[in-house]
Please model this.
Amino acid sequence: MPRNAEVIRQWTILRELEASRGATIRGLAEATGVTTRTIRRDLEALQEAGFPLYDVAGDVAKRWKLDARPFKRLDDTAFTLAELSALYFSRTLVECFAVPPFGHDLRSAFAKLEAALGPRMRQFLDRLPDVIQAKAPPARRLDDRHQRDMIGRLLEALLHQRRLDMRYHSRSSRREKSYRIDPYRLVYAEGGLYLFAYVPRYEQVRTFAVERIRRLSPLDETFEPIEDIGDAVFPHSLGIHQGTPEQVELEFAPELAPYAQERIWHPSQTIESREDGSISVTMQVCNDGALRSWILSFGPGVRVTAPEALAHRIADDLEKARARYGGREP
Model:
């Protein structure tokens, strides 16, 4: 059984119960394509996890239901003033990183929190952004309605492991292509949403930018994941790229060394200090556009010492930039 099949099925059970006035074990088994024994185990697991499920007598069989207010216990939690204030203040940070289609739901949640705080307390807390703020990362220009529609279809397909036909604008070929895909995961990174999907035609998992999806059509086919993509997101890239990592070695000049040492640019990095104040940084990363852009952002304060091909590529980019500023083509 795939590692995520159980949680997807149990999530489907919760959604079925939430959307209906109750369902029988047999009905849930038919909806999820498993045995009634598996459904009983799922219901027990969900109850043990704290979900308020209960059964009532029916005309033929018991019907299982989900409490209409599954989080009513929050009414009795007695949040302290400091806790409520911290949640409200987090709005400044959370809204910077909210995936665009879910912004409405986020605003609704904070509106309910505002009601609990009261007007005078809100007036005081609204002054907090003057003390600390967060800057949102660059966001993609998106058609919000189109984005909502695409994400809704993708979530349905992801939860039910349903195969899709997709029309996609390929940036590399500068044209639209058709794909048949098995959607594995949605990922939010660098201001955009990305889909990890297995493409049977290529027999590999590929990454697609959601804003470049032109059309999605669900098929009457389900799939079983055949490749484990793991838990890490773009683990070998400084940006959003899938690829094989290689050892990259950089030398930072003394004036930039303190700044470079202050941050963890990649989990694999190691730093070696030198007597003249410079440092050597080594990391195992993809040799991609994100890495090259990051290196170029330091200007003359950094030098690539390995691999040689990357050093030549950076030098070539710098020469082209110099030529443009000099008014001639390289």
Q: What stands out?
A: The chain has a mean pLDDT of 83.
